Amino acid sequence: MDQISAAIEKNWPDFLDLLKQVIEVPSVKSNPMPQAPYGTETRRVLSLVMDKSAAFGFETKVIDDVIGYAQWGNEGSDYIGILGHLDVVPAGSGWDFPPFDLSEKDGRLYGRGILDNKGPIISCLYGMKLLKELGHQPKKNLRIIFGTDEESGMSDVPHYLAAEQPPVFGFTPDCKYPVVYGERGVVNVALHFPLPDDELHQFTSFQGDQFRDHVPDYLSVGVAGQTFEVTGKRSPSNAPELGANAITLMAAQLAESQKVPPIAQAYFRWICQSFHQQHFGEGVDLALADEDSGKLILTPVVMQKAPEGLLLEVAFRYPVSVSETDVVTRLQRQLPLGVELEVIRSIPGFCRDKESTEIAKLSAIYQKVTGNDPTPVTTTGATYARKMPNILAFGPSFPGQKGIAHNKNEYMDSADLRMNLEIYMRSIKALTE
């Protein structure tokens, strides 16, 4: 057992104690308060982590109460950056463990944020602490940057970049392994289906847990005095094939009901034909793919009654070789007459040089620790790497692990978390030598 492995073994209980303290803060974005733009709990968890970082002997700084960092080294202005987040999505319902606590059962750790992203970013902080205690002397500065708005738009990063220069290289431990050299473009569109007043008045509001980060698993609506209700299966919106979408299930039901007025019924029939189990664009002439990133993915995420009719929000994740204009133009050609399209979210993709020296270093460490294929990959997800120059995603999920982060009973196997800590410690050492 080398020094790094021995240090992890010796200090594992202490690391879990720190992680437990961080997970116990229910750091879901809420209403702004004085000195807490994203709410008191996100600010509280940032203060906690800054205090711990200072106690470990690192220089700390908080910027505009939304983002902070712990720095090791004083070798000029350039630095290696590791960027993660301390905010989490709401707990939701149906947990078998307290969501805002660290629980363990049969070698598996549970808690909101254990995977996304408190477990991985606290692993990086604690790994930096252990390397410092082992006597490693960084030849390059290292900053671990803690954001608090990743789940709700990443508005924290512009605050950071207005005050600090970006890293010369670095990673965000908020995606998957191996190294992620490209991220697909993301565009969300609102489709406005106009209805005459006599039809619109027959609908109640749609009820259900609908948000763009996941496939909705329940939906109900009243039409002409009758209640329609469907239950699907929740999954992340970038893996819709793992779920059962309550919106398209509802559309299928309403398309066949005689209670639904004719114009609305035609719309639901189109929604069903275009999107139900058509996760890769087959139903709307968007079956696009490339070698780097694979197939386009689409997910209906929100259905609402609106003042002029019905509104459907659809999220698209498109290949790195495709443009947003391509996606929107092709979709517009498929819309029923009178339906209007509005772009409501736009995040361009990127593709970087997968042959770079830094990527080669991280890939070699990943292969050495895990024995897995280190070939760099792309992702359907959207990470801080889109907002911060010179950052790539690296971990924490291993191949085959999907659909865990935003669900009930969010978990990481203890062995996987320990392996992440080792990967990040060895990466920090290699990048700062």
Topology:
Blueprint: H1 3-23, H2 40-55, E1 59-63, E2 67-72, E3 79-85, E4 103-105, E5 108-110, H3 118-133, E6 141-147, H4 156-163, E7 169-172, E8 175-176, E9 179-183, E10 185-194, H5 197-200, E11 214-215, E12 218-223, E13 226-231, E14 235-236, H6 246-255, H7 262-275, E15 289-290, E16 294-295, E17 297-306, E18 309-318, H8 324-334, E19 340-347, E20 350-351, H9 357-370, E21 377-379, E22 391-394, E23 396-397, E24 411-413, H10 414-432
Parallel strand pairs: 3-6, 3-7, 7-22, 8-23, 9-21
Antiparallel strand pairs: 1-2, 2-6, 4-5, 5-24, 9-20, 9-22, 10-18, 10-19, 11-14, 12-13, 15-16, 17-18
Helix pairs in contact: 1-3, 1-10, 3-10, 6-7, 9-10
Description of the structure:
It is a single chain. It is built from 10 helices and 24 strands. The relative contact order is 0.18. The longest helix has 21 residues, at 3-23. Strands 1, 2, 3, 6, 7, 9, 20, 21 and 22 form a 9-stranded mixed sheet that branches. A 4-stranded antiparallel sheet has the order 17-18-10-19. The protein has 433 residues and is of the alpha+beta class. Helix 6 packs across helix 7. It has helices at residues 3-23, 40-55, 118-133, 156-163, 197-200, 246-255, 262-275, 324-334, 357-370, 414-432, and strands at 59-63, 67-72, 79-85, 103-105, 108-110, 141-147, 169-172, 175-176, 179-183, 185-194, 214-215, 218-223, 226-231, 235-236, 289-290, 294-295, 297-306, 309-318, 340-347, 350-351, 377-379, 391-394, 396-397, 411-413.
